[in-house]
Write a structure and sequence with these properties.
Helix content is 67%, strand content 0%. By secondary structure, the chain is mainly α. The longest helix has 16 residues, at 2-17.
Length: 96
């Protein structure tokens, strides 16, 4: 379980390193939206992110996402409408 938690945390940290791009509405996604986004994209792959990461780490990563502009509003809207991993991949990178 600890290995899974570390792997998922690493994945989220990688996303956090990809900050938003200028002119892409990157800072319009709130921490609550980031959390919903993270939970949704992992759920598409059959994973329960909160169970794997724990509440504290998930809340912290969601706050970092919102502050750094990791996920653009355009990408968020596309990803939240995705109903499969293929749909999600068609959305492109989180910071676009």
């Amino acid at each position: 379980m600890h290995v899974n938690r570390t792997l998922f945390a690493t994945g989220l940290l990688w996303l956090a390193a990809c900050t938003g791009t200028a002119g892409s509405d990157s800072r319009e996604v709130t921490a609550a939206q980031c959390r919903a986004y993270y939970e949704h994209i992992y759920r598409l792959d059959g994973a329960d992110l909160q169970a794997m990461m724990g509440e504290e780490l998930l809340a912290r990563e969601s706050a970092v996402c919102a502050e750094a502009g990791t996920v653009t509003k355009r990408h968020y809207d596309c990803a939240m409408a995705a109903r499969s991993v293929d749909d999600l991949q068609a959305c492109g990178a989180p910071n676009t």
